[in-house]
Amino acid sequence: MKESNFGFKKYNKEEHTSKVKEVFNKVANKYDLMNDVMSLGMQRLWKKKFIDSLNLNKNENLTFIDLAGGTGDIAKRILSKYKKEIKVKVVDINQEMLIEGKNSFKKFDNVDFICSSGESISITDNYADVVTISFGIRNMTDREKCLEECYRILKPGGIFACLEFSLPKDILLRNLYDAWSYGIIPKFGKIIVGEEKPYKYLVDSIRTFPSNEDFNEMIGNAGFINTSIRQLTGNIVCIYRGEKE
Ligand SMILES: C[S@@+](CC[C@H](N)C(=O)[O-])C[C@H]1O[C@@H](n2cnc3c(N)ncnc32)[C@H](O)[C@@H]1O
């Protein structure tokens, strides 16, 4: 049976999915705050660059899917950048994360929240102009299946964009990054959320994610063309992009 990495441990599909759900159940109510603390606020800049990198025509009535959208942070940024007529669907496997986000979207009637797995997305074929996934693909039990699903739900010509953590190539930055991730982040988890373990998983999972080149190849294998990689902040994060033919 195929196993998936949960940090450095391996579990079968069902166990992996339930372990990831458990992590996000635990962190949901402090998720946005912890993101700022863990990244020293950098996540805001990374997400801004991610949305800017989509480089879309602002006058079109586009349909967006934000997969693994959690509390809806990316959806909010999309809504504030594009015109009112766009449609956004936030898809996430974790109801707790969606509930946490939903309250802040009351004034929008063009956003839906869908509780669905990214490996079997309950959205019809050729639906979206854009599929975004920010800090989500790393947590998927079956990443290949998720990429195939992203391809399926995009219209021909549609854009897939993925923001994900990566690892700095510069030795000095890598040492600082490791010291911060293992020495400080779990401690903040303990103080703010009351638990270190979910944050140990989050930092481990970055170390077991494929290299930029390997992940870019996986995107190509799912059928995407014109794929590209853009490294940010010394490759602490990376933006991947592809198009459906
Ligand atoms: C690190 S959070 C990212 C949230 C948000 N996209 C952001 O950038 O802040 C990862 C999200 O992936 C979701 N997730 C994990 N596994 C998933 C799966 N198999 N299908 C859909 N969502 C999943 C989690 O519930 C969580 O909300």
Describe the structure.
This protein is of the alpha/beta class and about 240 residues long. It has a single domain, classed as Vaccinia Virus protein VP39 (Rossmann fold), CATH 3.40.50.150. The protein is about 45% helix and about 25% strand. The protein has nine helices and nine strands. A seven-stranded mixed sheet has the order 5-4-3-6-7-9-8, with helices on both faces. Strands 1-2 form a two-stranded antiparallel ribbon. Helix 1 (about 15-25) packs across helix 8 (about 195-205) and helix 7 (about 170-190) runs antiparallel to helix 8 (about 195-205). The radius of gyration is 17 Å and the shape is globular. The two termini are about 35 Å apart. The model has no long low-confidence stretch (mean pLDDT about 95). S-adenosylmethionine binds near residues 74, 93, 119, 134 and 136.
Q: What shape does the CA trace take? A: globular
Trace the largest sheet across and list its strands.
5-4-3-6-7-9-8
Distance between the termini: 33 Å
CATH architectural category: 3-Layer(aba) Sandwich
Helical amount among residues, as a percent range?
40-55%
Helix-strand pattern = EEHHHEHEHEEHEHHHEE
Report Rg.
17 Å
Find the structural class using helix and strand composition. alpha/beta
Number of strands: 9
Low-confidence stretches: none
Instruction: Estimate the mean pLDDT confidence.
Output: 95
SS summary, helix count: 9
Largest sheet: 7 strands, mixed
Strand content: 15-25%
The ligands found in this model are: S-adenosylmethionine
